[in-house]
Amino acid sequence: MKLIPIKAAPKEFKEAVLHELGYGSDGKYVLESNGDKHVDPYSNVPVTLDNMIIMPGSVLVLDDNALSIASYIEEHGDIL
Amino acid sequence: MSADPLRDFAAGLAKGAFDWTADKASYYVALLRNHEIAFIGRIDLIREAQELGKVPELQFYREYLTDGRLRLLAWMGLVLRQYESDPLRQEDLHALRDRIRKKYKEDGLHIAQVVQSRILAEVIPPVLSNERDKAAAAVTIEAFLNESGRFCIFVKDKDHIDTRIEEVRVRLMALRPPLFVLFARGSAKSVCNTVVIGLSQRRVEYDIQSRDVFGSLIVILFRKDLLRPRPLG
Fold first, then answer.
1. Which pLDDT score is estimated for B231?
2. In chain A, at which end, N or C, are there fewer CB atoms within 10 A of the end residue's CB?
3. Terminal Cα distance for chain B, rounded
4. Which of A44, A63, A66 is nearest residue B76 as measured by Cβ atoms?
């Protein structure tokens, strides 16, 4: 598994990746296809372009924090 | 150049050649779906969470915690403790507390703080020695954590002593929990000691044990009628 730091990537690239995954963006937040803010299921916070991480497999867009990371590991195993 | 542009692309990434042009997004997504890459933020957050997820202290707790929510909150308690110990991580500390509260409400944060403060580590051994077996101990420990909002009080230095004593006494009398914990650090320790003296004078039917743990005061109250008789000799 290669871990790629996405924080430094240009906004256009992040938006293109999100588009491929069926999400959008208003320039600050990650948006669902219906325009609602995408909420990290593990920490209940809206995910921003600045603080998003994307986990492999089923491709979860999460907020970058220990609770979300640990929850992902609990559910999917320590594959990172 | 091979016939598979995705393989060529992956090989480039493996050498650290990140191509951030938007038209490569579909390649990255294909690799994500194929479990070959993850897009991460701070590598230290991941490595730290991974390491703390494997420490013996958490493995010990997991022997007594079957509920996934409690296991995760115990893990987060260790992360909070790590952040708390580093003056440069206070922003991380507040951000994590905020996220735990958003997901698991105030009760969930309280449970994580019970682990962060080493209360759980102090509670498990005496519970183990008092219960008939490990399974019974696990039930008591999970119940304590789930009720820790009511049965574990973080005493503050500004607490009104008589009010605290009465609050604890009423909870002990009315709810009769198997165990109850008071925690204090710094100048709140003398307040906590005074509360303990007040409870003793009011003859609560609890066995009271105080411990100094890493500079904090942890007071565990066990219901006397549930204490198993100790073997003679």
1. 62
2. N
3. 81
4. A66
Among the partner residues B33, B46, B53, nearest to A59 by beta-carbon distance? B33
Domain layout of chain A by residue ranges = 11-76
pLDDT on residue A38: 98
Structural domain boundaries in chain B: 1-39, 150-233
Contacts (Cβ under 8 Å, ≥6 apart) of B159: B188, B191, B195
In sequence order, which ranges of B85-160 are alpha helices (DSSP H)?
90-116, 119-130, 134-146, 148-151
- Give the model confidence (pLDDT) of B116-158 as tens digits: 999 999 999 999 988 889 999 999 999 999 999 999 999 999 9
Tokens of B18: 């990140």
CATH architecture of the region B150-233: 2-Layer Sandwich (3.30)
Q: Residues B10-55: pLDDT tens digits?
A: 888 777 778 889 999 999 999 999 999 999 999 999 999 999 999 9
CA distance B165 to chain A (A): 35
Residue B17: the pLDDT is 78
If interface means Cβ-Cβ distance under 8 Å, which residues of chain A face chain B?
A: 1-7, 9-10, 12-13, 15-17, 19-21, 42-45, 51-57, 59, 63-71, 73-74, 78-80
Chain A residues with CB inside 8 Å of B38's CB? 1-4, 53-56, 80
Q: Which residue of B has its CA nearest to A13?
A: B22
